[in-house]
Every structure is written in C-alpha cells, then in structure tokens.
Design a protein that fits this description.
The complex is a heterodimer of chains A (about 450) and B (about 350).
Chain A (H helix, E strand, L loop, with lengths): L1 H18 L15 H6 L4 H15 L15 H7 L4 E2 L5 E2 L1 H5 L1 H4 L38 H10 L14 H31 L1 E6 L5 E6 L7 H19 L20 H16 L6 H4 L14 H21 L6 H23 L22 H10 L22 H13 L22
Antiparallel strand pairs in A: 1-2, 3-4
Chain B lengths: L13 H25 L27 H30 L3 H27 L2 H24 L2 H5 L8 H34 L7 H33 L3 H26 L3 H7 L11 H30 L7 H13 L1
The chains are: A mainly alpha (about 450), B mainly alpha (about 350).
Chain lengths: ~450, ~350
C-alpha cells in the first residue's frame, strides 16, 4: 500500500505538470518594430506604438495579414503563406512562411530568425526592399520572376535552400509574402522618418496668450493630412515594385554573342574580357584580386552590415560626447537627461545586432555563382552590379542611360569570368590564339 | 543490492520475445515521428483522436499524400505500438513470475498512453512545446522497452549478485556501472537538447534566437562529452573483459551519430565557412523537403534514440553486476519490492 501511495503521488504530480502545459501556450506572434529606425529617429515609446498601430492597420499581423488595395498584393496568396503551419482537408499547406522561412528570415523578414547568427552569409533582411539577385537595374526592385527563381534555385554556397520541390503555387505565395514583408518594412522606415520630420511637439497659444508645447499624435485615422501623407508614401513604395517589370535589363540583340562561335572567336572574346578585367574602366581586380581569387580589397560592407556598423559607431560616438557633456542651464540638463535615455535605448539595440561582417568579394575561380550560373545571370551582375553590395555595375544605370563600357565588352567579361575556373592562377594564359585548344566551352 | 536467490530457469520465454517485438516495433515509430518533425507534418490534421473528421483506423491513409500520409502513418504505427504494449502487459501477467516485472509492464502501458496524450495535446493546443516533450518522451519509452528486453533476458535472470571477495574487482565493476549510468544520462540529455535545436528554430518569440543558439552550442559541447564518456566506457569494458560487445556497438553508434550530425548540419545550413576556407567554396544547394535531407536528419534523430536505449541496457547490465550501498530511501523501496514479489 505504501508503494502504491508513493506511485500515486508521483503520478499526480506529473499530471499537474502536464496540465500546466495548457497555461504555457504562447501568444500569437507579433511583428516587432525596426528599432534602428525608431531610435535613429529618436522616437519615444508613444510614437513607436502609434507607428505599430498604423502598420497593423495597413498590413495586419503575422497570423492575419491584410493586402491593402494600394499595395496590389493578392490576399489569397498572403493567407496561404501566413499563420501557423497546418494542412487543410484538401491537403493544401498553410503557414508556408512559418514552415519554410521564419527560422532564418525571422517573423518580420528582418533576417534575424533563430538560426541567423550561425549562418554565413546572414539571411536577407527584406525590410529595405533591396535584393541582390535579380534581372533589373541596380536601383530597381526585383520582378516576381526574379524572386521565384531565387526560391526555386536556392543560392549556391549559402544556407538558402532550393524550394524546387514545392508546388509552383506555394512558391508564388511565398514570393507574395516576401514582397508584403518588404513593403511593410520600407513603409516602417519611411514612417519613422516622417514622424521625426513632421511631428514631434508644436507650440500652441491659448486664449490668454500662454504658449505651451503640445505633442502632435501620429493618428492618420483622425488626421486626413496624415492619412494622405501615409498613403502617398505607401504609393511611392508600391510604385517601385510595380515598375520592376519595366526595369528588366534587356541585352541588345546584336551584342549577344552567337551560340555557334568558333574556338578562335571565343578565345578572342576571353582575351578581350581579360583585358577589361585588368583594365581601368572595369577594375575588377580591385576587389576580386589580381588572380580572381576574391583577395583584393575585403574591407567594404554591404548595406545591411553597413547600417548596423554605422549605428554602432554613432552610438559609441554619442556615448563619448555625452560622457564629456557639461550642462550649464536647467534646460541643458533636461536635454542631457533625454539624450542619456536615448543613448540607453540605442545601446540596448546595439547589443541585439548581429556581428558586423565585411562584404568579401567572390572567388571567381571555383565556379560558384550565388546569383545564378547562366550567362545571362553573370551578364546582369556585370551590367547592374549587385544591389546592396559594393559590386558596381558597368552598364547603364537605368533605361536609356549610357554605361561605362559597351555590351559587347560586358559579354567578353562574361566569357572571361566563366573561363576563370579552368585557368590555373599560377599559369595565367597568354593572350594568344594558339591557347584556344585549352579552352573548354 | 540483493536479489531473490531462487531463479526459475525454466521460466517462459514469451515475455522476452514479446519485449523484443515491442522494442522492434517502437524503433520504426521513433523514425516515423522524426520524419513528422523533419517534414513539419505535425499539424497535418487539426483534430485528434480523429483525422480530418475520420475515425483514426478508417481514414483513407493509402490515398493520402504529403504531410497527411506522414502524420497519419505515425498515428497508425503508434496505435500498433499501443496494442503491442497492452499485449506486453497480458504476456507479463500470464507468463512472468516476478511481480516487479509485471508492474514494470504497467509502467510501459502508462508510458505509451502518456505519449499518445502528449501527441494529442500537441495537435489540440497547436503547441510546439508539447511536440518537443512528445519527442523527448518517445525515445524514453523506447529505452524503457529496451530495459524490458534486458529484464526478461535469460542473462538477467541467471545473474546473481555475490559479494566478490576481490574488493578491487568489485570496485572496478561498480565504477563501470557508474560510468555507464553517466553515459546514459548524458546521452538522454543530449537527446533533449537536440529536441530543443529541432523545435526552437520554429519559435517566433523575441527570445527564439537566444534559445536556439544556446541549444546548438550545448548540443555540440555535449556531443564531445558523450563521445568521451562512451570511449572511456569502452576502454574500461575491454580492460575488465566485460560487456565488450555492447561497448563496441555503442562506440560505433557514436561514430555514426557524429558523422550524421555533421551531415545534418550540412544539409540544413550548408557547408560552414571555416570548412570552405579549408576545402574551398563548394557551391552546395540543399533542396528543401528532399528525401535525402529528410532521411539524413531523421537518421540522426533515430540514432540518438538508439544510443540512449543501448546505453540504458548497458547501464542496467553493469548495475546488475555491481554492489552499491544504496541511499536509504532506495533500499527501502527495494525491500518493499521484495516484500511484494
């Protein structure tokens, strides 16, 4: 009986622990604010909450996204991609983003999912609306086809997998959701700047002539001017996405090399490409190194790391200047107190940022091309550069503009780059046609 | 530790056979459960005990595809294991003379019911913590089934604990038992941390990144600890000429598991940069939801369960040969068990 009593007691305790499982059920996930934007624009917690409310009204929540008519996004696709992962009775998967993407790209698309810190390179932060691998001009947004290709092919040499086994409709839903997160992130940054520039406190004179300071709330639902401003900002952001199709780089037909070139023609093109690679105009060796190993300059940063780095440096510099501050008046003391509070919040944000990494130029001798290994992919990179990175473009900056070099020359660089893995760095090929037998197509 | 002196060597072999059957049926269930998490099919159905409104046994499983096929297959196999566990209780009560073994079979039954309830809670609450607990208690149940195999084995029944006059030999045996217990404990801890690694990547709370990073750090540290302890255990087994087969098997499993762990990292996250600095850029693209990715990752999970089970079997066997001064409350339990036997 004693034993039975003891066993019963232990069983009861275990059931109690299990029963408490229901009490630990998590809250639905919420979008988090871009604290770099918020603190850089010195927004207090009230303005932060107001911005969060506006974003929630315009874009919804991670479980219930809203495709605002101004965005042109497809609500059905967003519904499939959002929320917790589950399957309906017809077998269609829901919660695609939560299932496939959130562990790296994060619930906000900020590139800081649970696994981000152990990955190199870091997952993409969508919130700037900047994407590296696309077919459009440098400053333009990617097309849906560009995003679809990245999802379908993955990014070789990184942790980004290929989702080619998913049905095309699911990939389309994910593309829509990525655009949704990007637009939302861009709007958040713009709203923070708008609130800093336009709102804050205003001086109000009452009937007795006393002037007091009054905080201007950010509430577009109560202020038609604010509502119009917000929609204008959103429209401009959306326009960038809508115009992506018009910004696709179309190579000139007469500049595209023929498929049936002879070995001598190919060799000549490769030689021309080598000349340009080492030349002053393209100056590829500055970053990719004198033998294309990626060992040129390696100290630059891409825009995502640069933002973090600048933020940390500005915070450190602010700390130094505040440490030496010597207020003389009461007003200056109050201002200093406010700055110390701002510094504290900046330091808290700095502590959460991923360690800053340099943008290391690609080793061109291993045949690993993150943005795609088709000739047209390499052409796009040389023409437009890689958006968000120090890789510059040599082609026109936009439709109708002039580039640094001609398209024929760009195709020659493509030929040279694609030939580099077959060219031993210790035995640089002489620029003579007799070497063409060593070239593999 | 004292045991009854009279051993019935003509005892029925059915409890042992049935224990083997149950254990052999549970291992595929561990695999299949691993597949459910790897393919994130846990919420393929939002209902439980039914499956999309169908009674579990009449759901058109063979006509289903994708995550519904995987999740429902897991449910069906779990039903089979549940039935086999009930069978274990029946066989134990009919064929087993030792009362504590019969009661242990009841513990197994409670375990499988608890495991089913945890699985159901995961669905009903859509709670990932329940999924993680389910993933930790499943291998524990598998290990307990393995223990039943050991308890019902002829080896266990003919072992008699004698007071060995050679004190150093007894000390060495006791030390082996202690090390085996530590190995088992570390292996299970590593499994739990591995479950945290698997499930933490889906968390969306602000603390998710910290939880995952902590889990993966400890998972790597514990891997070295487990490997070190198992190799030390193997060394001691060879020195004492006891349980060498088990030691070799466990060591080999560890080596396979470490290799699978590295493979799991590569198929999930790609080749790490420090490795590409040695071997060069690889240009690997992992295909999400591919069979090879799912098999490698799930093999790592299943081998972990096998290591826990095998190390528990080894710990029990070495304990059987040891003579410890038990803490008072345990020795009282032992006396109670004897009184009820």
């Amino acid at each position: 009986m004693k034993l039975a009593t003891q066993v019963n007691r232990q069983l009861f305790l275990s059931l109690l622990v299990l029963g408490s499982l229901g009490c630990t059920q998590g809250e639905p996930p919420q979008f988090r604010l871009n604290m770099i934007s918020m603190t850089s624009n010195e927004l207090d917690s009230e303005y932060q909450q107001e911005i969060a409310n506006v974003l929630s009204g315009l874009f919804g929540t991670p479980d219930e996204p809203f495709a605002h008519p101004a965005t042109g996004l497809n609500q059905l696709k967003l519904d499939l991609a959002s929320g917790p992962a589950w399957s309906d009775k017809r077998g269609y998967s829901h919660g695609l983003y939560r299932q496939h993407c959130v562990h790296c790209h994060g619930i906000d698309g900020d590139g800081y999912g649970p696994t981000a810190k152990i990955l190199n390179p870091y997952p993409r932060d969508y919130r700037k609306g900047i994407f590296k691998f696309k077919s459009t001009f440098n400053a333009a947004k990617p097309t849906d086809a560009d995003l679809h290709r990245v999802l379908a092919n993955g990014v070789p040499g990184t942790s980004m997998p290929s989702f080619e086994l998913l049905p095309s409709s699911e990939v389309e839903s994910l593309v829509e959701y990525v655009k949704y997160l990007a637009m939302r992130g861009q709007l958040e940054t713009e709203l923070a700047a708008y609130v800093f520039d336009e709102l804050g406190v205003e001086e109000v004179e009452d009937e007795s002539g006393t002037v007091t300071e009054q905080r201007i709330p950010f509430d577009p639902s109560a202020s038609p001017d604010q509502a119009e401003a917000v929609l204008d900002i959103l429209s401009e952001i959306v326009a960038g996405w809508d115009e992506a199709g018009e910004n696709v780089i179309q190579p000139a037909e007469d500049a595209i090399p023929a498929d049936n070139r002879s070995d001598e023609e190919l060799a000549a093109s490769i030689d021309r490409g080598r000349e340009l690679f080492y030349g002053v105009k393209a100056n590829c060796i500055k970053c990719h190194g004198p033998t294309g190993l990626g060992d040129g300059q390696q100290t630059d940063h891409n825009v995502w790391n640069k933002e973090n780095m600048d933020y940390i440096e500005a915070t450190t510099s602010m700390a130094d200047s505040l440490a030496n501050a010597d207020p003389e008046t009461e007003e200056e003391e109050l201002e200093l107190d406010r700055e110390w509070a701002l510094l504290k919040s900046r330091e808290e944000v700095s502590d959460t940022l991923l360690p800053v990494r340099n943008a290391v130029p690609r080793n061109l001798r291993v045949g690993v091309y993150r943005g795609g290994r088709r000739r047209i992919d390499v052409f796009h990179k040389i023409h437009a550069g890689i958006a968000g990175t120090p890789m510059p473009g040599l082609g026109a900056a936009g439709p109708g503009a002039e580039g640094t070099i001609s398209e024929e020359d760009m195709w020659s660089i493509v030929d040279y780059v694609l030939n580099l893995p077959y060219e031993a760095p210790s035995q640089p090929q002489r620029a003579l046609p007799t070497n063409h037998s060593n070239i593999t197509q | 530790m004292t045991v009854p002196k009279s051993i019935n060597v003509a005892a029925s072999r059915w409890p042992h056979r049935w224990a083997w059957l149950l254990t052999a049926a549970t291992f595929p269930l561990i695999w299949w459960g691993g597949f459910v998490t790897t393919t994130d099919a846990g919420m393929a159905f939002r209902d439980w005990l039914t499956s999309d409104g169908h009674f579990m046994l009449t759901y058109p499983w063979l006509s289903s595809t994708g995550d519904k096929f995987i999740e429902h297959g897991h449910r069906l196999l779990a039903v089979l294991v549940g039935i086999l566990t009930i069978g274990m209780v029946v066989v134990a009560y009919r064929c087993e003379s030792r009362t504590w073994v019969r009661r242990y079979s009841l513990l197994l039954l409670a375990g499988v019911i608890l495991q089913g309830v945890l699985g159901g809670l995961r669905i009903v609450l859509d709670e990932r913590l329940a999924a993680m607990l389910h993933g930790c208690s499943g291998p524990l149940f598998f290990a307990l089934c393995t223990a039943m195999v050991v308890f019902t084995s002829r080896w266990w029944q003919v072992q008699e604990v004698t007071r060995i006059s050679d004190k150093s030999h007894q000390t060495a045996t006791n030390s082996l038992a202690r090390l085996a217990i530590i190995c088992c404990g570390l292996a299970y801890l590593q499994l739990v941390v591995g479950a945290a690694v698997r499930h933490a990547r889906y968390l969306t709370a602000p603390s998710a990144a910290t939880i995952f990073q902590t889990a993966i750090y400890f998972h790597i540290v514990l891997a070295f600890l487990v490997l070190g302890h198992v190799l030390l255990l193997a060394l001691k087994c060879f020195r004492q000429h006891s349980h060498r087969g088990y030691a070799v098997a466990l060591s080999l499993l560890l080596v396979v598991q470490i290799a699978l762990g590295m493979a799991t990292w590569v198929v999930r996250f790609g080749v790490p940069v420090w490795a590409t600095n040695i071997i060069g850029d690889v240009g690997l693209v992992n295909v999400s939801a591919s069979t090879s990715m799912a098999v490698i990752i799930t093999a790592h999970v299943a081998t972990g369960s096998l290591i826990v089970a095998m190390s528990l079997a080894m710990a029990l066997r070495t304990l059987r040969q040891s003579s410890f001064e038990l803490p008072k409350f345990l020795s009282e339990q032992g006396k109670l068990l004897e009184a009820h036997a």
